[in-house]
Specification:
Layout lengths: L1 H10 L4 H14 L9 H23 L7 H20 L4
Helix pairs in contact: 1-4, 3-4
Length: about 90
């Protein structure tokens, strides 16, 4: 839970809509867990999130709405770094 709070604190400075979508996807994917996961499960969380980001970026770029690609990439990279830290500590 401490890690999730750190992640939220870091991401809150970025686009709030993007933050909301990322957090929903993280929770729905099971990336936030109360116990350490085995090696195969940890790897798939980061891969799954990366795949989501790729699809979400394409969707937003093709939506015809305003899309800040730079903010999206910053949020994605920050989230991936946080997920890597959690993975290294055995939590995702």
């Amino acid at each position: 839970m401490v890690y999730l709070k750190m992640l939220i604190k870091d991401l809150v400075m970025l686009d709030r809509n993007l933050l909301t979508q990322f957090l929903k996807e993280i929770v729905m994917s099971g990336a936030v867990n109360s116990k350490p996961l085995n090696m195969a499960e940890r790897k798939s969380t980061i891969e799954e999130f990366s795949h989501f980001c790729q699809e979400e970026k394409e969707r937003r770029m093709n939506s015809g709405e305003g899309f800040d690609e730079n903010a999206f990439e910053q949020a994605k990279e920050l989230t991936l770094r946080k997920l890597q830290i959690l993975e290294d500590e055995g939590w995702v």
